[in-house]
Amino acid sequence: MTDSAIRIRRGYVGPVTLTAAGWASALLAYAASAIWVALHQPAISSDDSLFLLRGLTRFSILDFSPQFPGYPGFVAMGRALLPVAGDPLHALALLSGMIALAIPPVAALVAWRNGNGAAALAAFALTLAEPLAPDLGLSLLTDGSGILFLLVFLALLPRPDEAPRAGLSFLAGAALAWALACRPSDAPLFVAAAAGAVVASRRIALPAIAGGLAVLAPVVAVIAALEGAAYMDEAARFLAGHATLWGNTPFAEAAHGNWLAALAAIPTGVPLAALIITVVAWASARLRTAPPALVAAVAAFVAYAAWIVAFQNPDQLRHLAALAVLGGLIVAMLVPRTAFAGPAAALMLGLEVLALVAGTTFDPRAAPPLTGAIEWLDGQSATPTVATNLGVEALRSALPTSRIYDAYYAGDMALGLATASGPAYRLTTTPLAQPPIATFRGRFAGEPGLLIRRMN
Description:
Elements: H1 3-9, H2 15-39, H3 47-55, H4 72-80, H5 82-85, H6 88-113, H7 117-128, H8 133-138, H9 143-156, H10 166-182, H11 187-200, H12 205-227, H13 230-246, H14 259-264, H15 269-284, H16 292-311, H17 321-334, H18 341-359, H19 369-378, E1 385-388, H20 392-398, E2 403-406, H21 410-418, E3 424-428, E4 438-440, E5 450-454
Helix pairs in contact: 2-7, 4-10, 6-7, 6-9, 6-17, 7-17, 9-10, 10-12, 11-16, 15-17, 15-18, 16-17, 17-18
């Protein structure tokens, strides 16, 4: 009797059996996630999603269709889905869902090309269980598209045991350029990834640049033709507003909290972040012998983390999604390289599942908080006056007879609420001094809940 037959008869469970069971469990969870996303009715969750919706029918950045910087790659993909989806809202929902569901398989491909089957399984599971994954699939926003095409870029980089190929390098540059076209506001993420890849393998530089220019040149030409010099004026206005008014920068006029407090609001958020940062720091010390994909991922993680802390608002946890995905991918790629990574991946997966379960409303009938707030306000007996720092344009569009004030402009808000002839309400994401008269819970960790307070 052979050794393999003896092991089977004794009930031996080897690595292959465990890996097969792991993939079966991961694919079952993946199928359940796909069904859950598909069961949700598309709904506008923020002003940004409303602006993107408008862009699918009329592209005008100056008219907030969508907002600056325009997200032309994402809008182009949404328009391509219009004949299939039937209308802009369903096209946007279909695109967001498809992108979110594509992230785990592509992350697994990156890990497999730069590791082995165990690394691929770890990457698939860690990106699938990532607590902000529901946000990427249901918020109808662009965050997931930048992450997805960044992963495609990493997947096309040369493996540790192969010489760079010009064709793949060209496609890698094109993928990274498309990520930038989909999500221009994440430029530091993509620039750092490109820099890390080139440092690790300089031979990819020229074909990758050619691929990037092949994508970006027509995109820039179209934007210039449509918007002209006024685009630069809008860029200056938007960047000034982001830096001094609604952003979380050293130049902001008002404090908007901090990322540590935002993470602390999510169960296991702080230990999960600490684990990812520890692994990234450990990997950074060993980059000299690492494959280009791992070098690029670490460089992108570090640069983007610095950008997020300095220039993004902690109220929007979805900005952390790229860090969570890259962190999980880095852990996965280390699995075949060090004994430290296996337990780290298991611990990280457990923390992710706990955070996902604690922060997610799994009922697919649950509506975005903004939708619930609009329905509540629309159901009042008298026309309300509303001040809010979230969903100003969505409220104005849905409640055309109401006066809606942007809470970031404190003077206008105070005057409007003080002179309201009917009921006046404050719609906010932050806790109130007195109990709210209505509360609308976020559906997942990255979606802030909304509270309504009567102001007169």
